[in-house]
Amino acid sequence: MADSSTGVIDATVLNPAEADERTEPVWGAVVSLALGVFGLVTAEFLPASLLTPMAADLGVSEGVAGQAVTATAVVGAIAAPTMAIITRWMDRRLVMWMLSSFLIVSNLLAAFASSLPMLLIARVILGVALGGFWAMSAAMALRLVPMRLMPRAMSTILTGVSLATVTAAPVGAYVGDIWGWRTAFMIATIVGGLALLVQLATIPRLPPVGVASFRTLLEVLERPSIRVALLVVLLVASGHFAGFTYVRPFLEKVPLLHIETISLVLLAYGIGGFFGNIVGGIVAERSLKAAVALAPLLIALAAASMLVFGTSPTIAAASVAAWGFAFGAVPVGLQSWLVRAAPDQAESAGGLMVSTFQVAIALGAVSGGMLVDNAGVASAFAYCGAATLLAAILVFARGPKSAE
Predict the structure, then answer these.
(1) Could you give the residue ranges of the DSSP H alpha helices within 245-258?
(2) Residue 251 contacts residue 257 (beta carbons within 8 Å)
(3) d(Cα 404, Cα 398) in Å, to the nearest integer?
(4) What is the mean pLDDT of residues 135-163?
(5) I need a surface site. Which of 83, 177, 201, 377 has the fewest CB within 10 A?
(6) Given this model, what pLDDT does residue 92 score?
(7) Over the stretch 231-252, which tens digit does the pLDDT of each residue have?
(8) How far is the C-alpha of 325 from the C-alpha of 274, rounded, in Å?
């Protein structure tokens, strides 16, 4: 019921019996949520492909500019578990319209940012939209379709993530090189506007149901398997974003790739992630521990190969593609682990995962930025390899058992 990479069911949602009261699915509204997710993930990923020109234009180092990722992550970590409580009196369609409006405002501010503080404000607004939207999208799906169609609805919504993962970074890098990085954010603004228009036309009235609470969060945290799983999330996500945030500077400075080639490499990363998500699900059905452990292990190997053989354009490109494949598989295994560890409190477990993931993004971006500015871009990849290797070892030692 919750996407491990970004989303968790709204705590105010009705129970399955109430969800089944809707006999006719509202597929237009479900598609509008997919468009919203596409716009949000696109905006989230843009800095990774535009970091070099953004930093030069704003007159800051690449490490400092990378904190645009940090700002979004920190606010997203707060917004994810709190949005349902803050908006508990609002019609859920109004909340989604508001969050999509935040997406548009964020992209506009980023496009016209004349200083780093203005860019950071834009990314803070995006964090609110990202965390809140993902915290409520699955819950809304429960109310838009009968329970028997819930898997199909979530699959439709998550298509937005897959498409954004494949297209955002390479298209952003290409557009930024031809028309400037600000144009990439303007295009993202248009995407957000289209998503909002479709939402305005399709989402029906959805009055709030129930009362949100944080009480179960503490109860879930008391379970040892949950704490281990969240530690793995922290290691994998912080390691990944410490390295991937600075993948463009690495490709420019080590294998000396041109922007056109970097765009293709980032496209390969996105395609790898798409297939990694599929393969991760297949592996998780057969061995959950293998699914959770092998993905970070592959990331560690990819980072190591870039450090040792990164001067080779072919090996660097193949490593980035393998990295994308591995990271695409990460959410599937971790989500399954958390749900099995707390089947009675899956919503709270998912909320904890979203917050932990966003905190880890912030930690990764901060540590990566400090390493890049003080020890060179390769040091960020060294941290990535060490963190993800430690995560894999932890899973093999304390990971999910068949009984979970």
Answers:
(1) 247-253
(2) yes
(3) 12
(4) 72
(5) 201
(6) 86
(7) 999 999 999 988 888 888 889 8
(8) 7
Contact between 291 and 332 under an 8 Å Cβ cutoff? The reply is yes
Task: Name the amino acid, one letter, at 272.
Answer: G
CA distances from 298 to 131, 241, 311, 328, 382 (A): 28, 15, 20, 11, 14
**How many residues are listed for the chain in this entry?**
404
pLDDT digits (tens, 9 = 90+) for 186-202: 999 999 999 999 999 99
Look-up of token digits 């992209």: 107
Please give the Cα distance from 59 to 53 (Å, whole number): 10
Residue 4 has pLDDT above 70, yes or no: no
Q: Which of 199, 202, 215 is nearest to 95 (CA)?
A: 199
- Alpha carbon distance 403, 278 (integer Å): 24
* Residue 275, SS3 per DSSP: helix
pLDDT in tens, 261-288: 888 888 888 888 878 877 877 787 778 8
pTM of the model: 0.67
Q: Single out the residue of 191, 188, 209 nearest to residue 199, CA to CA.
A: 191
Distance, CA of 381 to CA of 303 (rounded, Å) = 6
Helices 313-341 and 224-244, axial angle in degrees (round to 10): 160
CA distance 95 to 376: 43
* DSSP, res 2: -
Q: Give per-residue pLDDT as tens, 76-90.
A: 878 877 777 788 788
